[in-house]
Specification:
This protein folds into two domains: about 5-155, NAD(P)-binding Rossmann-like Domain (Rossmann fold, 3-Layer(aba) Sandwich); about 160-325, L-2-Hydroxyisocaproate Dehydrogenase, Chain A, domain 2. About 40% of the residues lie in helices and about 20% in strands. The chain has twelve helices and 14 strands. The strands form four sheets. A six-stranded parallel sheet has the order 3-2-1-4-5-6, with helices on both faces. The chain has a three-stranded antiparallel sheet with strand order 7-10-11. Strands 12-13-14 form a three-stranded antiparallel sheet. Helix 1 (about 15-25) crosses helix 11 (about 240-255) and helix 5 (about 110-120) crosses helix 6. It is globular. The chain binds nicotinamide-adenine-dinucleotide (NAD) and (2S)-2-hydroxybutanedioic acid. Nicotinamide-adenine-dinucleotide binds near residues 15, 42 and 189. Nicotinamide-adenine-dinucleotide binds near residues 43, 48 and 92.
Amino acid sequence: MKKPVRVALTGAAGNIGYATLFRIAAGEMLGKDQPVILQLLELPVEKAQAALRGVALELEDCAFPLLAGMVLTDDPKVAFKDASWCLLVGSKPRLPGMERADLLKDNGKIFVGQGKAIDEVAADDARVVVVGNPCNTNCMIAAQQARRLPKSRFTAMVRLDQNRAVSQLAAKAGVPITEIADLYIYGNHSPSMFADFTHATIGGKPVTEVITDKAWLETEFLPKIGKRGAAVLEARGQSSAASAGNAMMDHVRALSTPGAIHSVAVESDGSYGFAKGIWAGVPVRTTEPGSYEVITSYAMTDFAKSKLELTNAELVSERETVQELLG
Ligand code: NAD
Ligand code: LMR
C-alpha cells in the first residue's frame, strides 16, 4: 500500500466540497491505489462546523478503502499541515446579476492568510489549486505570500472552461467528445476568456474546416463558453458545483500526469502578451508529477490577439483593484 497523500480542501462543507470529496476519497483524483487523508477547512462558526461534521459522517459511512484519515478544522495551519495538494475552494460564490470580479473585495483577503499558512506548514511538494472566484487573481494573492514554495506551485482553475468548450464543439460538430483535441483556454476565468478554437481540432482536422460557420465560432461559441457559469447560475439558482468539482479533479489529474497538455492559469512570464506577474490561463505540458512548462509556440491570429488583449486588460485591472492585498 502506498503512503497516504494529504489533501487539504477549504470550504469543505460547501457545494463543491460535497460534490467532490466522495470522489476524491474513492480514488478518482489521485488514483485507485493512492490512499488519502482529507484535511477539511471550514469557517469558525458553528453552522459551518456542524455541516462539516455531517460531511465527515457521510464519508465514514461510505467505508472508502482509500480514506486513511480525516482532519476537520477551522484553523488553516491545521488544514494545510503537510498537505501535498491544497485545494482552495472556500469563499463566496456569486449571486445572480454579479460578475465574478464583484467577489474580489470579499474573497481576495481570504487568500492572503491561506497563502501564508500554506507557505508555512504545507508539505515541501505542496501544489495549490485555486477555485474560489475570481480564481486567477485570488491565486495571485495567495502566491504573493509564498517565501518557501515557488510561485509556480500556485495554479488557478480554467479547466471548467476547457471542458465546456470541448463539449460545445463536439455537440455542434455532432461528434463524440473524444474527437476534440488541443482546445485551450487563455486569460481570465471570466466572460473575457479566449477559448482558442483556432488551434483546436475535430477528428484531427482544424475546427475551422469542420465548423465552417466562422460567425458561429466568433460570436456564439466564445460568448457561450464565457457566460456558461452565469447560465448555470441562472438555471440552478446556485453556481456550478458538480462540474466545477469535476474540473478541479481533471486539473489535479492532468498536473499529475507527465505529458498531459491542458489549460491552467499560471503566473505569466509575458508569453502571449500577458502582463508579467498576473495569473493567466495558458496551455501547459506536465513535465513530471506536479510540474509543468508553458507551451509558448502557438502563433495567434489578429482575431485571437485582440481577444488576448481584452482578457489581459481585465486581469491587469483586477490586479490594480487588489493592490493592497499583494504586499
Ligand atoms: P458554497 O457557498 O456552497 O461553499 C463555500 C464554502 O466555503 C462554504 O461552506 C463556506 O462556509 C466556506 N468558506 C467561506 N470562506 C471560507 C474560508 N475563509 N475558509 C474556509 N471555508 C470558507 O460555494 P461553492 O459553490 O462551493 O463555491 C465556492 C467557490 O468556488 C466560489 O467562490 C465560486 O464562485 C467558485 N467557483 C469557481 C469555479 C471555477 O471554475 N474557478 C467554478 C465554480 C465555482
Ligand atoms: C463557473 O464558471 O461556473 C463558476 O465560476 C461559478 C460562476 O460564478 O460562474
